[in-house]
Amino acid sequence: MKVVYCLSGGAGDAVVAMMRLSIATVRFTNPDAVVEVLVDQESLDDLQAAGSRLLEEVDHVHACAVPPGPAALRSRHLKTSTRTVVQGAFLFLDADTIVRKPLCAEWSDVADVAACPNYCRDSLHDQLGADEAAYIAAMGWPVPSSYVNSGVVYFADSPRAHAVGRLWHECWTAGVQRTGRRIDQPAFNHAVQASGAELCLLPHGWNSQIVRAPATARDASIWHYYQSCERAADTWFAIEAQRLSHEQPVEQSVVRRLVGADLPWPTDSWIQRTVVGMMMRRGELTPLMSSVLTGDYVKAAHHTVRAALERLIRPFTRP
């Protein structure tokens, strides 16, 4: 299996640390995997100047030309270009993922593209949020029959898979120009539908989107964290990413703990275990729960008081 990432950012950025942890879990669970990364020249220069270990931890680096702009724009440009740059079949992964099991892709013989339903939901109503539905409407695209997440995507080396790749980048570019927004997922779903490619819907465990569907974390092959610089470090993955500096190697003990954990969240204290159990039953991770998991009990108290006040005034604010 070939595994592909894309990166725009400096050596000290959180996304680099997350990607290094993700790559380390791929190496641990799939020792024969080939790992490649697409990177823009500005980011590559920074990584090289800093002596980032990331460049030693991949098998091939694709230095790609991208338009000038913020890192988030450049990274989407790279992401939507992966199928047109990388040779052969591959599995694309967002940086905020860890691989927990061997990537035995039995679906690769029958699909042009394979991905998991967005938010790990089974109905289109639950997969497609109002924001992305509005984006699709603004672009004049038809609503797809299934809406998939673009954080974990398998691309075959087939003509229709290559067509998806070309259309993805074209549609994403058109969306940026028309809306000013740089999200890539609506364009991906439209490209799959417009190309006529054979889409294989993977089980939720291949892209367990733990923030939106905590219960899918159990026995999942891939955990997808939805982690960002702004999001609190409420998982072991985020905690370890904060600790990892660009000159440090990724310790195997850390990798074994990330891969071998039953669940992604810390459960050292009884209150953390209680919150995780509640999260799994309710199927959601609230800001209050996140604060408890990070040990920020002041913020947790703030969320508790705010929720109580909202319940108190709700009867007086209804029309």
Question: Which short descriptors sum up this protein?
Answer:
Spore Coat Polysaccharide Biosynthesis Protein SpsA, Chain A; 7-stranded mixed sheet; 3-stranded mixed sheet; 10 strands; globular
Number of strands: 10
- Shape, principal axes of CA atoms: globular
With strands numbered from the N-terminus, the spatial order across the biggest sheet is: 3-2-1-4-7-6-8
Distance between the termini: 56 Å
> In terms of quaternary structure, what is this?
single chain
Name of the CATH first level of the domain at 2-206:
Alpha Beta
Largest sheet: 7 strands, mixed
CATH fold name of the domain at 2-206: Spore Coat Polysaccharide Biosynthesis Protein SpsA, Chain A
Q: Give helix and strand order, one letter per element, not per position.
A: EHEHEHHEEEHHEHHEEEHHHHH
Which secondary-structure class do the elements indicate? alpha/beta
CATH-derived architecture of the domain at 2-206: Alpha-Beta Complex
- Helical fraction equals 40-55%
